[in-house]
Amino acid sequence: MRQLNPAAPAPLLCTLAVLLRTALSVDHVPVLLWSTQRSQWNPDATLHEGHIVSAQELTVLLQPIFTQNSRNLILFLQDTLSVDDFTYLSESYGNKNPFQNVQEMLQSSPSSLVLPAVDCEAIRYLLSFLQTSGDWKLTHTTNLNFSQLELDTSKPNLLVVQLQPLVSGLNEISIQEAIAENDKIIGRLTMDLQERGIHFSVIYTAARPSRISRRTDVVWELRRQLMATEDEDSSSYAPLNMTTGNETCILFYASNFSLTANGSVLIDLTNATFVTQNVDISSSECSDVNTTLSLKYTNPVNGISSLEIR
Ligand SMILES: *[C@@H]1O[C@H](CO)[C@@H](O)[C@H](O)[C@H]1NC(C)=O
Ligand SMILES: *[C@@H]1O[C@H](CO)[C@@H](O)[C@H](O)[C@H]1NC(C)=O
Ligand SMILES: *[C@@H]1O[C@H](CO)[C@@H](O)[C@H](O)[C@H]1NC(C)=O
Ligand SMILES: *[C@@H]1O[C@H](CO)[C@@H](O)[C@H](O)[C@H]1NC(C)=O
Ligand SMILES: *[C@@H]1O[C@H](CO)[C@@H](O)[C@H](O)[C@H]1NC(C)=O
Ligand SMILES: *[C@@H]1O[C@H](CO)[C@@H](O)[C@H](O)[C@H]1NC(C)=O
Ligand SMILES: *[C@@H]1O[C@H](CO)[C@@H](O)[C@H](O)[C@H]1NC(C)=O
């Protein structure tokens, strides 16, 4: 299936702090994309378990949408959505899958992409980013009765559809029904456009997560489920994980982990951290108030007998 362009491996040192922070505490939402046209979402080497897509990364991932010929884009915005909704709601109601249309379209579209975790901050600026990325005719609608929808397809259209809110405090059944209703709206509109021979791309996301979702392993199961393919990551190492009890609280991943001391001494910790795991993480801390990753190395290079990075 279609995925992302591999990006150049980021220099690790400058992103270390960011990675640790994002992997831990950033609110994130899923972003689902599909298009009636083939585009360039290729297998991606840089999306790792636990990775939360930043605003800047998202702008890169969205580029194929702007470069294809028919530039109609529909943005379906829900108030809340989390990856857990897909796994939990789809499983707990048996054959009544509330995301039926969305999942079918992800699978049948010529190109699609599932980003299980995107920084909410990126969603906040998504609309203004989209607006500046094309000479769109913007239509904003909360009226979900599309029988009257007129699109002038001689120009690129950006159609923003505010889906009905999933009122918090609803019980699971009503949330499921509200999601199923939104799913029908998405299905109706996109089917209608397709029948009229109009090409378009779709972004389906939400402003906020609907539940606290810290379990990044669930996130990645979802990506596999939705995309129905599993791409083993060949270009990098399994993440170093800090687990207390059954809960993984830190996942640390990199394709290269090295630093320079005293201006010239290169200390390459990649192997020690990810291959031989010749690293002591026992001084790390995972609690509600303090999450600290401590990496202790013995004799990382000649002349340095011990090194702790935290
Ligand atoms: C939707 O539009 C159709 C045609 O204009 C109209 O008959 C119908 O009552 C509308 N439905 C709602 C819910 O507004
Ligand atoms: C964490 O590490 C343990 C032991 O090394 C491994 O079995 C487990 O699969 C790892 N979990 C993740 C999410 O990488
Ligand atoms: C960890 O998982 C095992 C098996 O799933 C379970 O029996 C145990 O209660 C769990 N421990 C904690 C602290 O959640
Ligand atoms: C990591 O990057 C440094 C500096 O670019 C390089 O010298 C080193 O060989 C790399 N290590 C690995 C394991 O790729
Ligand atoms: C650090 O670099 C300076 C100048 O390059 C050198 O004189 C000094 O010996 C180095 N110190 C260590 C501990 O390697
Ligand atoms: C890391 O390990 C690989 C294989 O074990 C080895 O070929 C490579 O030279 C090592 N790299 C460094 C920088 O130690
Ligand atoms: C967090 O935990 C680390 C490791 O145990 C400790 O060194 C540090 O002082 C703690 N920080 C705070 C703010 O409690």
TrEMBL record:
Keyword Heme: no
Signal is among the record's keywords: yes
Alphabetical list of Pfam families matching this protein: VAS1_LD (PF05827)
InterPro entries: Ac45_acc_su, VAS1_LD
V-type proton ATPase subunit S1 luminal domain: residues covered: 247-305
GO molecular function: ATPase activator activity
BP GO annotations: regulation of cellular pH
Signal peptide coordinates: 1-25
GO cellular component: proton-transporting V-type ATPase complex
Keywords assigned: Signal
Name of this protein: V-type proton ATPase subunit S1
Naturally occurring in which organism (per UniProt): Patagioenas fasciata monilis
Upper lineage: Eukaryota, Metazoa, Chordata, Craniata, Vertebrata
Gene name tied to this protein: ATP6AP1
